[in-house]
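Researcher: Good morning. I'm working through a list of sequences from a screen, and I'd like to move beyond sequence-only analysis. For each chain I'm collecting a predicted structure so we can compare shapes side by side. This is the next one on the list. No need for commentary yet; just the structure.
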Amino acid sequence: MTLPEGFVCEFEGLAEGLLMEPSVSVRCNTGKGVSPLCDASLVPWCGSGFYLDQRPAFTFDPAMHQGLYYVQDASSMIHSHIVNRIAANRSHLTLLDACAAPGGKTTAAIDSLPHDAFVVANEYVPARAEILRENLIKWGFPHTLVSRGDTARFSKLKSVFDIVMADVPCSGEGMFRKEPEAVKQWSPALVEECAVRQREIVDNIWPSLREGGYFIYSTCTFNARENEDVVRYILDNYDCEVVDMDFPAEWNVIERDGCYHFIPGRVRGEGLCVAVLRKGGNPGGRSEKPVKAEKRSKAAVDVSRCREWITNPDDYNLIVENDRVIALPADRVALVKKLSDTLDVLYKGVEVAVIKGRDLVPSHALAMSQLLRSDAFPTVEIDYPAAMSYLRRETITLEDAPSGYILLLYDGAPLGFVKNLGKRANNLYPQNWRILSGHIPESAPTVVTSGSGRRL
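Model: Good morning. Structure tokens for this chain:
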């Protein structure tokens, strides 16, 4: 690789590190009971992350589509460690990931938050926002909201979030090894353009952070202009202080003026910089009482039946929007309304079902969700070829299965719903998510062990 003209290696050994082969790593979904392989090489700062010896064809692994793991660079998994430290012994936290797509850092944060936390994930680019929505649905955490749009909208939401993460758009120096296009696009002018945009994003979202809250700033680039200079800008313009993360020396992370740099060659991962700041003031006491959901429409079918499909139904309110039955945490209904009045919301809570005439069709989001009650539907375990056919949205035939809605399992974990008609079963996998490739390997890639998913 030839480094672009004008690029300066600000760290010793960086030029050599950029010539090394990039690593491959994944992070298990602890919320679905998945853990790394017994002999896995673990990511030092993330107990649920581990390295792979080679990059398999992830597309052909049903476990990835089941949300049992997420393919993520090891350096980016540091957000799991940081959020875990911030959230320790705390409850009812609210987190914003302001530049969230495709969702890796969001899901890493989710796994480190208490179960009663609420997460808002925003993305500016519409196509990337749809990918974010898909990945968060598959991850299955029920207390989420996905929004699309400019971060300027968050300036209207005063003191809402306990934690704000901003993995801001950057010049992409940390991706030089993996993405040749990043090398081609880089220029000193791009660095300056990004630095201006990064300050704008900070200014937009800072008001939404509560007093005493934590701001996690990160980029996938090395230069001081987009990292240390932005942190200095925040310190100069806002009442806050840098939080010393005190990473263990054996992690080989470099600290420079409040920023922590992950340098290829020193760490087994790509380039990343992260800084943590604490906003001045005290959080203060607050509480949100459960409220009854307002009636959105008069459905032609009794949607209360959906309560039989979810765990802890008394903790959730069911609302109907555009013939979709949505479960919202009862103690977050007021917050969701406030967010919905300000943001362009793509998804919230858990879509439990779609109303079609007098029928309630269980949604794929329910199959993926941690809210799914294990005995709500008849289940059928299918083999790998059938699982791939399902993910390609082909017709499925089930032997000796009851009629009606069936939850398909692969390796003991939910794969999705079909409606069994006897001789055939209608495939209910989302059309836009289907695998387009006609190729089917003889066997699935082994990333997580057989049976490591959530058993029903």
